[in-house]
From TrEMBL:
Keywords attached to this entry: Cell membrane, Disulfide bond, Glycoprotein, GPI-anchor, Immunoglobulin domain, Lipoprotein, Membrane, Repeat
Protein name: MAM domain-containing glycosylphosphatidylinositol anchor protein 2 isoform X2
PROSITE patterns: IG_LIKE (PS50835), MAM_2 (PS50060)
Subcellular location as annotated: Cell membrane
Superkingdom of source: Eukaryota
Region (Disordered): 881-900
Originating organism: Silurus asotus (Amur catfish)
Domain MAM stretches: 851-1028
Membrane topology designation: Lipid-anchor; GPI-anchor
Species lineage: Eukaryota, Metazoa, Chordata, Craniata, Vertebrata
Listed Pfam families: I-set, Ig_3, MAM
CDD domains tied to this protein: Ig, MAM
Ig-like domain: residues covered: 132-232, 239-324, 347-433, 445-541, 547-638, 645-732
GO cellular component term, pick one: axon
């Protein structure tokens, strides 16, 4: 074993190419789950992400050299050099396909060679294509942001504030974003809304907007990415104080008690806290023996009740209930005042109207309600049971006016009086608007004989029915041939009185004679008049016969084409002719008007714009109304709706290059009739081929070699008796639109004061679908302007799928935004264009590998002051220092010893007080892109360093914080130092590991006196870990450091070779 590790050390020192292999160690090791020497080794190999071709080639060359270098001296076995060539050739990079999985097994004797070969073989590159990732950030001031179970964040905001959530996405192509929301605890119903935008903005958020908000990003590559944040809306409504009294009657002369309960309740989120005052004195449980404060058992947190036991004179006072949510989100406390006196009483009211009001249509009604008692004075209002008040009604206090009433205004109206003492007072009245409607009749033959006809000498009954309001005012009268009839032995007149049911009157002719033939008239009216009466005529004669129902010849089955108008007809004979009822006979389904049955007085059912779903069997049957009250007659009619073929695809676009072959297919989904179907293929107006579909449901057309004349719209018309369906295939040589790459690292740079540059990157969607792209036409203009500037970008060679193309835009005027348009060009012509907006933002240091600021420029490297703190950092140099400066504190030069050099410092003289803070913020830095085959921890490491001067007996603290763009809540502390450090400059270094765009915050805290000036100089942020951090016993680093484990490779290599020796 010692020999083996010595060899590893020797290799590491002598062969520089092995260093590159160790850089790959952690990524390769994470693909090895178990390495068994004695048994077969099994491993699942997953396709490697983008940017892997050059990387893999380099890996295989290094690995081959390593294998030959290690194994030859130890095992004395000379390997065939051709192994390496074959090994490398087997690792192909196919940029046109996606992921592929493979499982392989191999003997442990060649485990190392197999391990690397199987890991690298058949790997398919995807370029920069990547599935979406997403995170949610918020702008604006949140009351609080908490992490809940590591998966969901809770964002708290005050009602009425503006909510702005931004969904930051990465992935290529640019993911499409969708916001959805489901109801939360503050809402009593499910709600969903969709916003297809990166930013979700609600200007004045309300309580029902609370809930979970989901951001879903998808780009068709991999699984969609979904993140959520819960928004909790805080609010506090005005509290309401209600009073209830209980008076105990004298029981056996022992006591007499009057107890008052004051109940305080307010709607709020979070739960409210209540407090009571009597006059100016706060009340609490136990502070007064006559007072008890408690919460009802089933309403914890919803209310607090103040109980005044056996009222005393001092209990008659002003009571104030204060509702508080502890000033969360800046919500102030709210109060409600109630004056309790010896006259406090619940409301009582009186209606200046009858309990039931009957009115004629068009009449104006006025309902008046007055208060007869109650202290405080009750508030009066009117409601209508089960419905809203009429639209034209006027409500003013206790007076409700309804002008021009109609039957729809009938109902129960109630006056409500409330003064928050006891139960509300309530009085109701019923408004009835007179009306008559739905007059009908029917004839019933003698029920004692099985005969549906009217015959001389037998009984016949004529029934008349009317709906009336009010029902008790309905009266009927009968006429024969215009003359009044009275009930007699042969003609018996009766009337049914059923509550809520239509009123019905019957005329029974006991022994029908020839002289009884004639016209009988039923007259319905209301006792007090005011509305027109209803008359119904019924003719009784020798021609009065029961109905019969038939379907005319040729009317069933009825064939009609879709979208036409059809009439279904049933012929009804008999006298009188009854109403015909139409319904579906073959299924339970609504009729065209939405009801289950439709009425027809002429026996015709007319259907406009008939659809295929209306096909089926319809039933027509007689109704008992306006005819004989006998068993219904019925007939069936079959309706057949023909419709043209439904085909797919109705429209599709095909991108093809010249000389290629392709096949297009048109498929029939459904049609009636479905045979025989004819088809025609055309290119434009030119007929290509035609035929008919006997057994198949699709037809295809093949192009063997596409030429220029072959571009255009191919159509396939499939026809039956009802019409035709069309498939359209647009064959074009246009290239697909480019896909802008939005995840470019440090895309914006600035090397001149007034202009900036932008690294524009894109990929080409499906580049192999059409001919080779020869150039791109780039158009650019300032947003808001009309003029485009265009130029061509020539392309050499063939563009591969996922290949990232870069073009630098220069001389962009800051801070203007630009609209960029990119159009691919092939020999067919211009393809589809795509556009994006480029926005200017304050750039990161142009040489981001090392950001350095010595504060010598007046712009101080784009550092900014935090205006929310008590005071600011000041830029100074020893040469410009005030002669009245505080002695025994502060530096006498900058960190380099120059009197002319500048630095930043905090002045702790008056009016500064102990604990006052000054905060200095660095520019916003972008995080370097993740290495495709980096370490297990993909978060990059940066070294932050600065020089500090902390001299004086009153020195406070110097703190450094990390603020990340995706981070919610407080900033992360990374370094802090407190107290006097002597009259000289010292350096501090600390490693930071940001996961997103970040900035550093330098905070100076004033100490206990004026001799506490703190200065900083030469702030540096550079990629990589800090080297040789200076020792300092007072320095406390709060950031973790990374550790390299180079020797992890030696153990698996040793195990493999041991297996090979065996």
């Amino acid at each position: 074993m010692a020999v083996w590790f010595g060899v590893c050390a020797h290799i590491y020192q002598k062969n520089e190419r092995i260093h590159e292999l160790f850089e790959l160690e952690e990524n390769l090791l994470q693909h090895i789950s178990d390495l068994r020497v004695q048994r077969l080794l099994e491993m699942q190999v997953h396709a490697v992400p983008h940017k892997s071709c050059v990387f893999l080639q380099r890996t295989m060359n290094i690995t081959a050299d390593l294998i030959h270098f290690i194994t030859s001296p130890l095992s004395q076995v000379h390997r065939n050099p051709k192994w390496n060539e074959t090994f490398i050739q087997n690792a192909t990079c196919d940029v046109t396909t996606g992921h592929e999985h493979s499982s392989v097994k191999m003997e442990a004797g060649s485990a190392l060679l197999w391990l690397l070969a199987v890991f690298l073989q058949d790997i398919h590159c995807q370029g920069v294509y990547a599935p979406p990732s997403v995170r949610i950030i918020h702008s604006g001031h949140a009351c609080n942001v908490e992490e809940e179970r590591y998966t969901e964040r809770v964002y708290t905001i005050r009602e009425g504030e503006m909510l702005e959530l931004t969904c930051l996405v990465s992935g290529h192509p640019r993911p499409q974003i969708r916001w959805t929301k489901t109801a939360g605890s503050a809402s009593d119903r499910f709600h969903e809304s969709s916003v297809f935008n990166e930013t979700l903005r609600i200007t004045h958020i309300q309580r029902h907007h609370g809930g979970r908000y989901y951001c879903k990003a998808e780009n068709g590559f991999g699984a969609p990415a979904i993140k959520s944040i819960r928004v909790d809306v805080y609010y506090l409504d005005d509290p309401v104080v209600t009073v209830h009294q209980s008076v105990g009657e004298a029981k056996e002369q022992f006591y007499y008690e009057r107890t008052v309960f004051l109940r305080c309740a307010a709607n709020s989120n979070p739960p409210v806290r209540y407090s009571w005052r009597r006059g100016h004195d706060f009340l609490s449980q136990g502070s007064d023996k006559g007072v008890e404060i408690y919460e009802p058992f089933f309403t914890q947190g919803e209310t607090k009740i103040l109980k005044l036991k056996n009222l005393r004179p001092q209990d008659y006072a002003n009571y104030t209930c204060t509702a508080s949510v502890r000033s969360v989100c800046g919500i102030p406390d709210k109060s409600a005042l109630f004056q309790l006196t010896n006259t406090t009483a619940s409301p009582s009211i009186k209606l200046l109207a009858e309990d039931s009001i009957v009115a004629n249509p068009g009449q104006t009604l006025t309902l008046v309600c007055v208060s007869t008692g109650g202290e405080p004075t009750p508030v009066l209002t009117w409601i209508r049971h089960g419905e809203n008040l009429p639209l034209n009604s006027l409500l003013k206090g206790g007076t409700l006016t309804i002008p021009s009433v109609s039957t729809e205004d009938s109902g129960v109206y109630s006056c409500i009086a409330s003064n928050n003492v006891g139960n509300p007072g309530k009085k109701s009245t019923n408004i009835i608007v007179r009306g008559l409607k739905k007059g009908r009749f029917w004839i019933t033959p003698d029920p004692y004989h099985n005969d549906d006809n009217i015959q001389i000498g037998r009984e016949v009954k004529i029934s008349c029915q009317v709906e009336a309001m009010p029902a008790e005012e309905l009266i009927f009268s009968w006429l024969k041939n215009g003359r009044g009839l009275r009930s007699s032995e042969r003609m018996v007149i009766t009337q049914t009185e059923a509550d809520g049911a239509p009123g019905t009157t019957n005329l029974d002719i006991i022994d029908l004679k020839f002289t009884d033939f004639g016209t009988y008239t039923c007259v319905a009216s209301l006792k007090n008049g005011g509305i027109p009466e209803i008359s119904i005529d019924v003719n009784i004669s020798s021609t009065t016969v029961p109905p019969s129902l038939t379907v005319p010849r040729g009317k069933s089955p009825l064939v009609v084409k879709e979208s036409e108008t059809v009439e279904l007809q049933c012929l009804v004979s008999g006298k009188p002719k009854p109403i015909i009822l139409w319904s579906h006979a073959d299924r339970e389904a609504p009729m065209p008007d939405g009801s289950m049955q439709m009425e027809s007085y002429d026996g015709i059912l007319r259907i406009v714009n008939v659809s295929r779903e209306m096909s089926g069997t319809y039933r027509c049957q007689t109704s008992q109304y306006n005819g004989f009250n006998v068993k219904p007659r019925e007939a069936l009619i079959e309706l057949i709706v023909q419709y043209p073929p439904a085909v797919e695809p109705t429209y599709t676009e095909l991108r093809q290059g010249l000389g290629r072959a392709f096949t297009i297919t048109c498929r029939v989904l459904r049609a009636h009739p479905s045979r025989v179907l004819k088809y025609e293929w055309k290119l434009g107006s030119r007929l290509l081929t035609m035929g008919q579909l006997d057994t198949r449901d699709d037809t295809e057309y093949q192009v063997r070699a596409l030429n220029r004349e072959g571009y255009g719209a191919y159509t396939c018309d499939i026809t039956n008796e009802a019409g035709s369906g069309r498939c359209t295939f647009l064959v074009t040589g246009k290239a697909f639109a480019p896909e802008f790459y939005y995840d470019t690292y440090s895309a914006l740079w600035q090397n001149k004061p007034r202009v900036y540059g932008f690294k524009l990157q894109w990929t080409q969607m499906n580049p192999n679908a059409v001919d080779r792209i020869m150039a791109y036409r780039l158009g650019i203009k300032q947003t808001g302007q009309q003029r485009w500037w265009e130029q061509e970008i020539p392309m050499e060679g063939t563009i591969q799928k996922g290949e990232l193309i870069t073009y630098n835009l220069t001389e962009l005027v800051k801070p203007e935004a630009y609209q960029v348009r990119l159009t691919p060009i092939t020999r067919f012509g211009e393809g589809d264009s795509t556009e994006r907006i480029i926005y200017y933002s304050a750039p990161v240091n142009p040489h981001w590998s090392k950001f350095h600021c010595g504060f010598d420029e007046e712009a101080v490297c784009m550092f900014t002051q935090d205006k929310t703190e008590e005071f600011d950092w000041t830029r100074h140099s020893a040469a410009t220092r005030d002669t009245k400066y505080t002695p025994n504190t502060g530096p006498s030069s900058d960190h380099s010893g120059s009197k002319q050099g500048y630095y930043m410092y905090i002045e702790t003289s008056r009016p500064r007080q102990e604990g006052d803070k000054a905060r200095l913020l660095t520019p916003l830095f972008s995080v370097a892109p993740k290495k495709p085959y980096g370490s297990v921890s993909n978060n990059p490491t940066y070294c932050f360093s600065l020089y500090y001067h902390m001299y004086g007996k009153h020195i406070g603290s110097l703190n450094v914080y990390l603020r990340q763009k995706s981070q919610t809540g407080e900033d992360s502390p990374v370094w802090t130092l407190t107290g006097n450090q002597g009259d000289h400059w010292k350096q501090a270094r600390v490693n930071i590991h940001p996961t997103s765009s970040f900035q550093m915050i330098l905070e100076g805290v004033r100490g206990s006196g004026i001799e506490g000036d703190i200065a900083i100089d030469d702030v540096v942020i550079e990629e990589g870990e800090c080297r040789d951090p200076p020792p300092n016993s007072n320095l406390r680093s709060l950031a973790p450091s990374a550790v390299q484990h180079i020797w992890k490779w030696c153990v698996p290599l040793f195990l493999v070779l041991v297996g090979q020796w065996r």
